[in-house]
Design goal:
The structure is a single chain. The protein is α/β, with parallel strands linked by helices. About 50% of the residues lie in helices and about 20% in strands. The chain contains five helices and five strands, in the order E-H-E-H-E-H-E-H-H-E. It has a five-stranded parallel β-sheet, sandwiched between helices. Helix 1 links the parallel strand 1 and strand 2.
């Protein structure tokens, strides 16, 4: 039934649940998996943007460069953390006999997931749902809502477990 499962993951507890759900399905249907992690400003660990303007006198140019270097280092660490997570999950899936690839994208998570689902010809997308409501959903958006309404295939949303 499902041969290609696209799995949207992040480094949260919900991301682990999403991965495990998708892995179970992939094993059951002998499907391939594609993991995607999207670097987006809505990620909790996204580096804070640094807005600096060069001072006319040029007195603080060295400080400006230092701030930019620090931001570049934060960004590199953020990007590397996502790649490390993807490599680790790919290894786990491969060891369980599930052929798995991964990609990391930058931008709007909903669009990136739907675009990859179309390009990779996914049969199923598995992603998490944080359960945002009201103003939080309005201002932060809802990746799962966007994907449900724009995906080119079936979508399974995994709800965060309530203890």
């Amino acid at each position: 039934m499902y041969k290609k499962i696209l799995v949207a993951v992040d480094d949260s507890e919900l991301g682990e649940q999403v991965f495990q759900t998708a892995l179970d399905l992939a094993q059951h249907y002998q499907a391939r998996m594609m993991l995607i992690h999207v670097l987006s400003p809505t990620n909790e660990s996204y580096p804070d943007p640094i807005f600096t303007t060069p001072l006319a006198s040029g007195v603080y140019v060295g400080l400006h460069e230092e701030v930019m270097r620090a931001y570049a280092e934060q960004w590199e660490n953020f990007e590397q953390k996502g790649l490390d997570m993807l490599r680790n999950l790919t290894q786990i899936a491969t060891e369980k006999g599930v052929p798995t690839e991964f990609t990391q994208a930058l931008g709007d998570a909903g669009r990136a997931i739907c675009d990859l689902a179309k390009d990779w010809e996914s049969d199923l997308i598995v992603l998490g749902r944080r359960g945002l409501k009201g103003l939080s959903e309005f201002f932060l958006g809802s990746v799962s809502n966007y994907v449900l309404h724009n995906a080119p295939c079936s979508v399974l949303t995994v709800q965060r477990r309530r203890d």
